[in-house]
Design brief:
Layout: H1 2-5, E1 15-16, E2 21-23, E3 29-31, H2 43-48, H3 51-101
Antiparallel strand pairs: 1-2, 2-3
Keywords: ATP-binding, Coiled coil, Nucleotide-binding, Nucleus
GO molecular function: ATP binding
């Protein structure tokens, strides 16, 4: 990279090395450095959790999902019963008003 950046004709070029270092036209060098340490987020946590703990957590999750489905069904049923009760109450009030007029 330095051979290309500072070539034979004394005309500086902007060049990036394979390691990521940047040679500017002014002659300064920037970037590069050590190896990037990214991409390892959460790897230490995976090593400390046993397969038994994962299995137990999955069983508990499945149980909770089943309980949630049952509760949602109960909510829907209760909503339908409430609407039916509201309708019956309205009909009774209309019937009461009619009988009081007679």
């Amino acid at each position: 990279a330095t051979r290309i950046a500072y070539g034979e004709n004394k005309e500086f070029r902007r060049v990036v090395t394979l390691e990521g270092a940047l040679f500017e036209k002014s002659g300064t060098m920037s970037g590069g450095g050590g190896k990037p340490r990214g991409g390892k987020m959460g790897t230490s946590i995976k090593a400390s959790v046993s397969t038994e703990a994962v299995g137990n957590a999955e069983k508990e999750l499945a149980l909770l999902v089943d309980q949630l489905a049952v509760l949602r069904l109960k909510i829907v049923t209760a909503g339908k019963r409430y609407q039916a009760s509201e309708k019956a109450l309205a009909n009774l009030e209309i019937h009461l008003a009619k009988t009081q007029m007679e």
